[in-house]
Structures are given as structure tokens and as C-alpha cells.
Amino acid sequence: MSNPAALPKIAWIGLGIMGSPMSENLLKAGYPVTGFTLEQDKLDRLAAAGGTAAGSIAEAVKDADVVITMVPASPQVEAISYGPEGILENAKQGALIIDMSSITPQTSIDLAKNAAEKGIRVIDAPVSGGEAGAIEAVLSIMVGGEQADFDAALPILEALGKTIVLCGPHGSGQTVKAANQLIVAVNIQACAEAVVFLEKSGVNLQAALDVLNGGLAGSTVLTRKKDNFLNRDFKPGFRIDLHHKDMGIVTDAARNVGAALPVGAVVAQLVASLRAQGDGGLDHSALLRAVERLSGAQV
Questions:
Q1: Where does the 3-hydroxyisobutyrate dehydrogenase-like NAD-binding domain start and stop, copy by copy (predicted)?
Q2: Which residues lie closer than 8 Å to 212 by C-beta, 6 or more apart?
Q3: 91 Cβ partners below 8 Å, 6+ apart?
């Protein structure tokens, strides 16, 4: 391994379901990581893994060469980036921000513009692959920004994911992520409808899903979510609340560019209804619960 002193110093803001294992993968790769998040137990976890816990965003980013952010949505990205305690006021000139949150493309474009005025570079680098992908460091990472900044970030991103692609200028990573979330939601919904149909027909569900997954109906979604469906285990890998936010992003962005999403719009409403029924904290595979309710089950 290369001399750790030569590796860039990393500040990590946001140590949630995704951020904790991702930051630990950077520690395993030899990077020095200083982190900040709102939950003390997550800071303790980072320290236990060999990282440094900071008491504030300002403290975390002041010496960092690279600042990585992984927070839930646009308002949180704005909260951590702007203002006297935020990243832009406290990071050093020439630092690179890698925002791995899933937010609106416009928020990424605005952040890059505001950061450039401070001599700070930004790429948007949202991810797909969920908690399992984060733990296994096999995430798909879609990037928006300048080629030179992408090249600088690549060794770091390679410690976090497997498929890493520069998709275009600032905001492009978020646009591709929005498309990803559209495909995933519609795919889960189709799987959920099939599960209820199969069960009501008295078919062995395990056998049915195994054979379906071996053909054209197979997908990464079905592979990852099969056990959730079989066991009705909706412990969150990716919460309905967050997919609801993402469906808002994709339907809004599609309207802005004049693209019709007829099926996506229906699934967005199904996600919203699931949330309204109190299931927002469950995994997005819980779309199955909505189909069960519509099919007469007391869920």
C-alpha cells in the first residue's frame, strides 16, 4: 500500500446507513478520515474503526483535502454547505467536495457555482446499491462535474464502488440517480404485484421467484429483495421516506424537461400512499404491503 501520508485527508459529513460503512471502507483503504454527524453513537463507531470524530462541521473540514457528504436530501446539503458553520466557509481553498447525497440536480448545480467562488471544487456523486452495496464497496456511482475533478476523485470512489461513471456536467449525476430511482421503484412495484398474484394462486413463492429471477424477469432488484418479500422483512436498507423524496425529484425534473413518466407517476403515488399509511420508515420493498392492502389483506 502507498504511504498513508501521501493520501488525501478526508472529512466525512453524514454517517447514516450508507455513510458509516462507506467511511469505514475508506479507512480500510488507508485514508485518514475525520467525520461529523448528528448521532454520537455513529461518531463512536467511526472512532472505533480508526477514524477521528469531530465536534462540528467546521472542525471536520478545516484541514481536509477532500470533503465527502452523504446526507438525506437537498435541505440537509444546503444546511451543511452554507452559513458561517458550513463547509464552504470552513474548508480550505482548493479542497474538493464530493457530494454523494441524492438531491435535485439544481441543488448540485448551485452548490458547484457557490463553491467555485471560494476556490472550492465540487462533484455530485450519488450512488446506487443500497446498504449492501455500501458495505461490500460495490456501489454504482454516477458523477456530474469537471473531468479533472472526477479524475482526482476516482481513487477515492474506487474504494467505495465498482461502477463509476462521469455522466456529464454538474447535476448530471443527480439526473442519472433520479432515473435509477424511477427504474427501481417501478421494478419493486412489479415484483410486489407478482408476489401477491403468485401467493393468492397458491404457488410456492420461493420456487416461483427463483425461476423468474433466472429469466428475462430477473433483476438486481429481485435478487436483493427476494428475501424481503418471502419473509415480509422490511427492515430498512432504503427507506420508503427517502424513495418518496426521490420520486418527487424525478417527477419534478421530468416535468421541467418535458418528459412523460406515466407509470413512474403512478408508482410515485403508491409510494406516497404507503408513507401516508405510516410505513415511511420501512424498506422500499414494503411496496408489497400496499399491493396486499389493495388486494383485501389486513396489513
A1: 171-290
A2: 194, 218, 222
A3: 11, 61, 62, 64, 67, 97, 118, 120
pLDDT at 88: 98
Reported residue count of the chain is 299
CA 222 from chain center: how many Å?
Answer: 19
Q: Report the pLDDT value the prediction gives residue 237, as an integer from 0 to 100.
A: 87
* 120 touches 88 (CB < 8 A): yes
Rg value, the chain, Cα: 20
Distance CA 83, CA 194 (A): 49
CA distance 230 to 162: 28
Separation of alpha carbons 268 and 135, rounded Å:
28
Per the model's pLDDT, the better-predicted residue between 174 and 4 turns out to be 174
Find out whether 178 and 249 touch, Cβ atoms under 8 Å. Answer: yes
The arithmetic mean of pLDDT across residues 148-163, rounded, is 98
Alpha-carbon span 117 to 75, nearest angstrom: 21
Q: Rounded to an integer, what distance in angstroms lies between the CA atom of residue 238 and that of residue 181?
A: 11
Which residues are marked as active site? 177
Strands 121-124 and 161-168, by their bridges, are unpaired
C-alpha cell at position 282:
420501512
Using alpha carbons, select from 70, 71, 79, 143 the residue that is nearest to residue 105.
Answer: 143
Indicate the residue type of 112: A
Per the rule left: phi > 0, alpha: psi between -120 and 50, beta: everything else, 273 is: alpha
Please determine, for residue 66, whether its predicted confidence score (pLDDT) is greater than 60: yes
Residue with cell 460503512: 21
Name the one residue in this structure whose C-alpha cell is 448521532. Answer: 39
Amino acid at 11: A
Residue 15 CA to residue 100 CA, distance in Å, equals: 12
